[in-house]
Specification:
- The structure holds 2 protein chains of 2 kinds.
- By secondary structure, chain A is an alpha/beta fold.
- Chain A is built from 20 helices and 9 strands.
- In chain A, strands 1-8-7-6-5-4-3-9-2 form a 9-stranded mixed β-sheet.
- In chain A, strand 3 and strand 4 form a beta hairpin.
- Chain B is built from 3 helices and no strands.
- The longest helix of chain B is centred in the middle third of the chain and has 41 residues.
- Chain B starts with 9 loop residues before the first helix and ends in an 8-residue tail after the last helix.
- The N terminus and C terminus of chain B are likely disordered.
- Classes of the chains: A alpha/beta, B mainly alpha.
- The interface between A and B is large, with 56 and 56 residues.
């Protein structure tokens, strides 16, 4: 387990965090504005009372010479009304502060209700879907109609920006294509220095970044699926992922190469140590699973937590994509699994975690927390949502960081926290926001408002914003966010991570794709 | 408590005390009205706690004002009694406006 640096110097609520979903909150923001107005009137009345009391007190002092014996008790009787901490002016000040806080709350609710991003998504996605439903020819006609409506501009610009961001990610990836883009004197400044991404973002500035990426993803998915015959799919992102998955796996299937994920042997069993204390330390465990840290390629960890009362719980940590090659290799944590998961198909990354669970000896009633970064988060949600697995294990919670899980379902008895960065494109690859279910909370952190210089630097590009280390820092800061919608998930963390005195043992499992006819390659 | 040249201390004191009570009653009513928002959830509970605290403090102010009434009026009456017609006689009585 890696130690996480918690920022303990600043006790104020950290800026830049937005919480969505969770237990239902009912509010009419107009009511809050009216309540704030009433409090302002109350403050005015208290101010008026204060002025009257000061007049009375002054008059008592002026007239004290005529009756000193009664002046002192009269002044003393007025003193509580003039107290700096309890008097009318102090209460007026606090009432006004409450009114202002209420104004801010009303404004937040109003903005949420008028979410520009939602408007953009609803307009553009709806238009795209309507156009695509008529096939490629219809798409062209629809595009002309959209042009008339003005929204195709957003779609096209968003597609261009998403393409630029995708190319930037590819250039930074440890792939042959990435190496070519990095070495090319033309593409290097355009991509690695972010010029293309900035240029394509400029005309979109002012729109919510995540919404733009989601729109761009839907547009790209529509373009991919639009060339296929037949009616347009209801979920173009899922369908496009299926097309891509079929494409990247086709050569191997044509050659008759069939692989299955094999897990083991156990590469490492860590000695007894305290379990993680919070979400940040759980994500630090996820980070540790990545090679070249404490995990090898295809490593996942299962941590058994032994509570002082004899109870047991489990934390499963799942790292993200480690192999970006379009050709499936040994490591199941790869692009092929990404595409399969997004297409709703069986994938080897999930199979590897399921095999690790089976070898761990998890009891039927022992609560399990699944935590994953990027691809790992998708795997975590997929496992928690699998009814066959839910019959064997008690999945209490899911923690995802930078994962596109908006289109994935989750049972109502599993509490989920989805941590996302607006500057990270990966969570937007599902083409829409996460559902605002009562058991699913999405915490978004604007890295540009972080006190950590490393976070502000990370906000400058999609690579840094997606790094697991950036998410670990965000989770550490998130622990200072006070929001009742986070409480159900925090209760799950408390239940799984245990009280002080709990101990834990980590077992790391390494998975590799193997041919049924031979050992892992 | 403002005192006119023709008045004593008692009337403006009584008026001032009455105004204080009116303002505090108004404040209490407005605070109560602020509690009528259709709002549920943890933040709403926190707001309700804060509002309840403000209401309690306003209520205490009203009680303090009520308690001060007798002492202030007693003093005003005593001051008026100490200077019978002084203001009308020679203007030696302090006058506040």
């Amino acid at each position: 387990m890696s130690a996480v640096q918690h920022d303990g110097q600043d006790t104020d609520p950290p800026p830049g965090f937005t919480v969505r979903g969770g237990p239902a909150t009912r509010v009419r923001w107009e009511d809050l504005s009216l309540a704030a107005d009433a409090l302002r009137r109350a403050a005015d009345a208290l101010d008026a009372a204060d002025r009257r009391v000061r007049d009375l007190h002054a008059a008592v002092e002026v007239s004290a010479g005529w009756s000193p014996a009664t002046a002192r008790p009269a002044a003393n009787a007025l003193a509580p009304l003039l107290s700096a901490s309890l008097g009318a002016r102090a209460v007026a000040d606090d009432t006004l502060a409450l009114a202002r806080a209420l104004d801010r709350a009303a404004e937040e609710y109003r903005r949420a209700e008028l979410d520009v991003g939602a408007l953009v998504r609803a307009t553009v996605q709806g238009s795209v879907a309507a156009a695509a439903s008529r096939g490629p020819v219809g798409l062209l006609g629809g595009a002309l109609r959209l042009l008339a409506l003005g929204s195709v501009g957003v779609q096209t610009l968003a597609l261009a920006h998403v393409t630029a961001r995708g190319a930037t990610l590819l250039a930074a990836s440890p792939t042959p294509a990435g190496m070519v883009l990095r070495l090319n004197p033309w593409t290097r400044p355009l991509l690695l220095e972010g010029r293309l991404a900035r240029a394509t973002w400029a005309p979109l500035g002012g729109l919510p970044r995540t919404a733009v990426v989601e729109v761009g993803v839907v547009a790209a998915a529509t373009a991919i699926t639009g060339v296929l015959p037949g009616p347009a799919p209801r979920d173009p992102v899922r369908a496009a992922a299926g097309v891509l998955h079929t494409t990247v796996t086709l050569p191997a299937r044509l050659r008759g190469e069939v692989t299955t994920p094999a897990v083991g042997p156990v590469v490492e069993r860590w000695p007894v140590e305290p379990p993680p204390r919070d979400a940040a330390e759980v994500l630090a465990d996820v980070a540790a699973d990545y090679p070249p840290y404490e995990g090898a390629d295809g490593t996942v960890s299962v941590r058994r937590v032994d509570h002082p009362d004899g109870a047991r719980s489990w934390v499963v940590t799942i790292p993200g994509t480690q192999d970006w090659s379009p050709v499936a290799g040994d490591n199941p944590a790869d692009l092929t699994s990404d595409l399969a998961l997004m297409a709703g198909r069986a994938d080897d990354a999930t199979a590897a975690v399921v095999a690790a669970l089976a070898q761990s000896g998890i009891g039927r009633d022992e609560p399990v927390l699944l935590a994953g970064h990027s691809l790992g988060g998708m795997v975590a949600v997929g496992i928690a949502a699998d009814p066959l697995l839910a019959a064997r294990y008690t999945f209490a919670g899911v923690l995802t960081a930078g994962s596109p899980v908006g289109s994935m379902t989750l049972p109502a008895d599993v509490q989920a926290l989805h941590l996302e960065h607006p500057h990270d494109d990966v969570p937007a690859l599902d083409g829409g926001p996460n559902p605002d279910a009562s058991n699913r909370v999405t915490v978004t952190r604007d890295l540009t408002r972080s006190a950590h210089a490393a976070d502000r630097v990370a906000a400058d590009g999609p690579v840094g914003a997606h790094r697991v280390g950036t998410y670990v820092r965000s989770a550490a800061t998130m622990d200072r966010v006070e929001d009742e919608r986070l409480e159900p998930f925090r209760a799950v963390l408390d239940r799984v991570l245990g009280l002080p005195g709990s101990t834990s043992v980590v077992t790391r499992y390494t998975a590799a794709r193997v041919s049924p006819s031979g050992p892992p390659g | 408590m403002s005192v006119g040249a023709q008045g004593g201390w008692t009337y403006p004191a009584a008026t001032g005390l009455h105004r204080v009570q009116e303002h505090l009653d108004d404040a209490a009513g407005q605070v109560a009205a602020a509690g009528g928002a259709d709002w549920s959830g943890g933040a709403a509970a926190s707001f309700a706690d804060s509002l309840s605290e403000v209401a309690t403090r306003v209520s205490r102010l009203a009680a303090s004002a009520d308690g001060a009434r007798a002492e202030v009026l007693r003093h005003a009456l005593a001051a008026d009694a100490a200077v019978p017609a002084a203001g009308l006689a020679g203007g030696t009585r302090p006058v506040a406006v």
